[in-house]
Model the fold of this input.
Amino acid sequence: MHIDVRRTGGFAGTTRGWRVDTDSCDDPTGWSDLVDALPQGAPPASNPAVRDDFTWTITVERTTVTIPGSRLDGPWAALVARVRDEGDQT
Amino acid sequence: MTPTGRLRSVVPPYLLRAVADADAFPRAAEGARTALAALATVQQPKHDHRVRPRGVSGTANRSPQRTISDAHGSTTLPGTAVRHEGDPESGDAAVDEAYTGLGDTHAFWLEVFGRVSIDGAGLPLDATVHYGQDYDNAYWDGSRMVFGDGDGEVFNRFTIAVDVIGHELAHGVTQYTADLTYQGQSGALNESISDVFGSLVAQYARRQSAEQASWLIGEGLFTAAVHGVALRSMKAPGTAYDDPVLGKDPQPATMAGYVDTTEDEGGVHTNSGIPNHAFYLAATAIGGNAWEGAGAVWWDALTSDAVTASIDFAGFARVTVDAAGARFGQGSAQQTAVQTAWQTVGVLN
Done:
C-alpha cells in the first residue's frame, strides 16, 4: 500500500512531501491498523477565517483527502506523523 | 475560501475502510470522482460585508489587552494562559517575543493610523505559542495568532521575527476591513497586505526609513543550516532563499512570472510577491518613512469601499492610485510613484 502525504501553504508557502510503501516496511500490520483507524466521517472542513494554515493532502492508494492543518488531529495526525517519520521525502 | 472549496475529495467512510482491499479500489476512485462533481456544484456563501471602523472609537480601550497562552507542544487551543497584560517577563523567549511583538503591532496601528487594535474597537490580542511538535508555521485562526517552535533544523521559532507577528495580526485587520477572499489574486493581495503591514510594524518599531529597511519577511526564521536570509523579499522577490532542501524562493516580482496553480489557495503566498514588490517600489520612490507614504496610501485603499472582497491586482492598484491622489494631491510625486510602481510590476499599463 502506498501512502503519500503532501503539505502545502503555511506562512512560508513551501511544499513538502513524504511517501511510504507499507509493503516494504517492517510493520505492514501496524500501517493497516493506522489506516483502519481513520475516522468514518468526512474529514474536517477548513475554517474560512483561518489564514496561513497548512493544507495536508493525504493519498492512501487511490483515495485522496485534503485536511486543513489546524484541524489535523487524531488518527489522521497519527498517520501523517508516521509517514513523515518513516517515509521518503518526495 | 469556502469551507468546501479546499476539499479535493470527501471520501465516504466505507471507501476509506476498503482501502486495504484491492478489489475495492475502482469503487474508491469512482467515489472520489463523485465527491468532486458534487463539490463543484456547491455555491459560494455570500460575502459577509463587514463594518469598516475608521479612527478611534470613543469608548475603546486604547491600551493593548494581551494574553499569551502556552499549548505545551499540543495542538489544543488556546492552551494555558501564561502572561497577561502588565505581567513581567516570563523568561520563556517565545512567550515574551509574542508579548512584545503584539505590543509593537498594537502601537503601530494606534500611533500611525489611529486604529485601536485590529478591529478598531480595542479587541483583545490573544496568541498561543509552543503549538504542536516541530511545528513550522504561524497562522491566524480568525481570532488568535498561533505560533510553532519550528523544527530546529530548517525553521526557528516563529515568534523570532516581529514582522511575522505583524503579518498575522494584519490578517485580522484585513478580516475587519476589506475581508479579501483568500483565493487567487484577492488572496495574494490578502497575503501581500499582511507582508506590507508586517514589514511596516518592524520598520516603525526600529524607526527605519524606506531606505534603511531590509524589506525581508521572516528574517531570522531560518536556521544557520539553510541557504537563505528570509522567507520572502519585497525588494527582490524570488531571492530570499536558494537551498538544497527547500528549493528556491518561488516568488515572482512581476506579472510575467505570475504562477497559475491550484495549491496554496491559488498561490497566495507566491503571487503576493507582485503586489509586495509594487509596494516596495512605491515606498522607496516616495522615500522617508514608508508608513507615512506608501503605507498610508495602502491603508486608505484597504479601508476604501472601492475595494471589494474579490478584487484583483489591477482593481486594487487603481484604488491605490486614486487614494494617493486623494491623500497627496492629483499628479503629486506620491501618486506618480504609486502609478509607476504598478506599471513596473506589469499590473497597470
Observations:
- Chain A has one domain: 2-85.
- Residues 2-85 of chain A form one domain.
- DSSP finds two helices and five strands in chain A.
- The radius of gyration of chain A is 13 Å.
